[in-house]
Amino acid sequence: MHNIKIEQTSQPKEKPAPDQLGFGHYFSDHMFVLDYTEGIGWHDPRIIPYQPISLDPSAMIFHYGQSVFEGLKAYITVDGEALLFRPDANFKRLNRSNERLCIPAIDEQLALEALKQLVAVDREWIPTAPGTSLYIRPFIIATEENLGVHPSKKYQFIIIMSPSGSYYKEGINPVKIMVEQQFVRAVKGGTGEAKTGGNYASALKGQEIADREGYSQTLWLDGKENRYVEEVGSMNIFFKIAGTVVTPELNGSILPGITRDSMIQVLKSKGIPVEERRISIDEVVEAYHNGTLEEVFGTGTAAVISPVGELKYLDEKMSINKGEIGEVSQMLYDTLTGIQYGKIEDSFDWTIRL
Amino acid sequence: MHNIKIEQTSQPKEKPAPDQLGFGHYFSDHMFVLDYTEGIGWHDPRIIPYQPISLDPSAMIFHYGQSVFEGLKAYITVDGEALLFRPDANFKRLNRSNERLCIPAIDEQLALEALKQLVAVDREWIPTAPGTSLYIRPFIIATEENLGVHPSKKYQFIIIMSPSGSYYKEGINPVKIMVEQQFVRAVKGGTGEAKTGGNYASALKGQEIADREGYSQTLWLDGKENRYVEEVGSMNIFFKIAGTVVTPELNGSILPGITRDSMIQVLKSKGIPVEERRISIDEVVEAYHNGTLEEVFGTGTAAVISPVGELKYLDEKMSINKGEIGEVSQMLYDTLTGIQYGKIEDSFDWTIRL
Ligand SMILES: Cc1ncc(COP(=O)(O)O)c(C=O)c1O
Ligand SMILES: Cc1ncc(COP(=O)(O)O)c(C=O)c1O
């Protein structure tokens, strides 16, 4: 159907040792490339040896930030099969990001087919040690050689893959996060709900401040009133307050996380009350003070579930659940990783076996 | 002092015809490159033949938008000399953008010296036809090969140059601009005051809407209240109301334009009242209705002064000064281009002759 050309590498790289992986340092032997040219559309799908990208210095990606990306993973199950987790949801989100950034839509079927073939070609690159996976990074960059500010007439859609280590080396460690006061990541009407480079560039400054104060991530508030909780650096955020799990609604300025959506479905299926709504930082502080803030956790492809052990807002340091992982967080983690590594049945039909 | 290596091209390109130039299509024979490596700092300043940039697909610029840029021009004066307009102000602003984007500061003296040498090497590329100039694009991109979200440990600072045509081919044509309602370019606490790719990517959508409705640019309102005037696509904005020139103050979300600053200085020197303050779109509409909205114009390196002949807000189309260039706009245009082309004395000490 889709005619994807495959050029095998003649120089396979040595694979890194499983305990050396970390995140995003090593890349597999092949990459997928698809070109866009105005008047022709997307063309020339191909799998080629992993290699540098050569662009004119006037290529628009270097100047005007027109880019989008995705992040998902391939896993080796306990039965030794290769498995993808909700890749269709990622390509759907990529197209929503494209729409916001004035990038022409990709064919989601072709993208999925390309990804399957790429993972098949580099199957040996999916690490098998517990907790490891192959992180997959689809991205699109504007490549027209032109300094005028307008949507590019040329793009490249590329998929690269990086074997990555276990996020939690010695069991799940709750993280410390800090509410950012001075800087803003996104605002309604901006690009916050798209997965585009500019959002991450603008967030670096808050991250720098968090680092300096010994916090691992920033919790962003909304850009208009500086009051409503949005999300963490690269995770959506959940609060368990008096037995109900609350997460900010998709308001146009936060990323619609696929892990977030999956967790909401799992919570519902277990009969745990869950609400998507506006939640102010004051409500969180109040719940902390009256003893009903039971759990806080982030959700994202990289960390799966990241329990928050300490939350700092202004001068107050709130210790959550004695700095330990809570019951619901643990259940969600076990359920999701169970499905991803094929240990429990995928009753949600989220996984694709290759 | 600064040891800038120069490698001359062995294959000089043919120069485009003066009437074919346009903006940002052609590039001179050489480029300046400076590398940054964590632990070493900025190193290896060099002028080399204009050539492609080759980067690993995991280079951070392709993913997380960590980039800044500048735009300025070199002119050939009526006496045949090459002249730069306030290049020091551009490199100062570049460093302010760097600070916001967590990019290490450059040595402004070195940058200026590099620019002078680069313009000298490619002096023949400065076009001489009336209204033409050599557009100069310094930019910095994050080049570390790593998918982790953090400030890059490697960068390239590059300067490319593009001969560009006269912005106004048949005299100054007032433009039609339109106030954007749905999308937001920037918000206080975000990256609006930095010259970084993400701001331009996020503005493309508004531009697309303006194009569709037959307007040449978008006028952005503030991201918090959607009420206060900010700036136009790539220009700052000025309103002459009842004899006083008003422009939005530098509030943290608009670009501190160098043309803007220059125009304020010229207005002051001529005794024309000028105010930098918050101005709501309602105030503009009211002035229009009571007949005191005398002139509207944008300022920027590319257009110098761009008179606005029609301003659309919601369903109202306001015709400004009968769609013609106003007296103050014309005076500012004549003064600035007079200084840039060496026709009138530079009493502000803005120009550097090479
Ligand atoms: C800003 C941001 N929010 C949330 C998430 C979580 O999204 P997902 O669960 O799809 O990985 C990510 C990571 O992808 C992110 O970058
Ligand atoms: C967003 C924006 N505002 C204003 C300006 C005008 O700035 P300057 O006068 O320094 O060219 C520019 C162009 O550089 C711009 O991109």
TrEMBL record, chains A, B:
InterPro entries: Aminotrans_IV, Aminotrans_IV_CS, Aminotransferase-like, B_amino_transII, BCAT-like_C, BCAT-like_N, BCAT_family
Top-level lineage group: Bacteria
Pathway assignment: Amino-acid biosynthesis; L-valine biosynthesis; L-valine from pyruvate: step 4/4; Amino-acid biosynthesis; L-leucine biosynthesis; L-leucine from 3-methyl-2-oxobutanoate: step 4/4; Amino-acid biosynthesis; L-isoleucine biosynthesis; L-isoleucine from 2-oxobutanoate: step 4/4
Reactions the enzyme catalyzes: L-valine + 2-oxoglutarate = 3-methyl-2-oxobutanoate + L-glutamate; L-isoleucine + 2-oxoglutarate = (S)-3-methyl-2-oxopentanoate + L-glutamate; L-leucine + 2-oxoglutarate = 4-methyl-2-oxopentanoate + L-glutamate
Single GO MF annotation: L-isoleucine-2-oxoglutarate transaminase activity
Alphabetical keyword list: Amino-acid biosynthesis, Aminotransferase, Branched-chain amino acid biosynthesis, Pyridoxal phosphate, Transferase
SUPFAM superfamilies the UniProt entry points to: D-aminoacid aminotransferase-like PLP-dependent enzymes
Residue numbers of N6-(pyridoxal phosphate)lysine PTMs: 195
Cofactor(s) listed in the protein's UniProt record: pyridoxal 5'-phosphate
Biological process, per Gene Ontology: isoleucine biosynthetic process; L-leucine biosynthetic process; L-valine biosynthetic process
Pfam families, sorted: Aminotran_4
EC number: 2.6.1.42
UniProt similarity note: Belongs to the class-IV pyridoxal-phosphate-dependent aminotransferase family.
Protein name per its UniProtKB record: Branched-chain-amino-acid aminotransferase
